[in-house]
Design goal:
By secondary structure, the protein is α/β, with parallel strands linked by helices. The protein has one domain (13-210): Spore Coat Polysaccharide Biosynthesis Protein SpsA, Chain A (Alpha-Beta Complex), CATH 3.90.550. Helix content is 44%, strand content 12%. The chain contains 6 helices and 6 strands. It has a 6-stranded mixed sheet with strand order 3-2-1-4-6-5, with helices on both faces. Helix 1 (2-33) crosses helix 6 (174-196) and helix 2 runs parallel beside helix 3 (87-96).
Amino acid sequence: MVAYCSTVAALLIAVVGCGYLIAATILVGRFARAPMPTNAPAPAVTILKPLHGEEVGLFDNLMSFAQQRYAGAVQIICGVTDTQDPAVATVERLRDASTASGVELVSDPTIHGANRKVANLINMAARIRHDVVIVSDSDIHVDPDYLARVTAALQQEGVGAVTCLYHGVAASGLWSQLSTLAINAHFLPSVVLGLGSGLAQPCFGSTIAL
């Protein structure tokens, strides 16, 4: 009897798992084909980039934000809590690049509470010049039309915030590959399923546009 119950339980779990995979596959396909708003005005934008350390690909990631095909004014504020942070040199390199404009650096060790990333953002807030603000993590790389698409979505009726789902790109080594697999095969479809079922309305560190 115990063996029979175990078999039934295993079959039920397998059926639920297969159902999840089928639903996730369908919803991810719909999500990828969903039309994006276009032809919207291009308001001035401030991008906040909290930084810590010289991580892999940091310059290229930041440069992807500085090289946007966008008609509006763009201010990029990079923040560190230590003047000796290695990320400072990368920001200076970004500011020297001929294609990068409107890049500012805030170095402020002031701590506001226990969350150092939030403290970094608070320290940058006084330099914000524009009404549209985008908070984005340092390890994010975007396409040249990123700002146009995000601001167009933000201007839709009833929208108060915009975020972006993201996929992982492995750097090198087994752990990086496993982390990328977890993002692309587990996290991403789970988010789309949560959105499709109405059970989730998340905002991710990749993009929080307000």
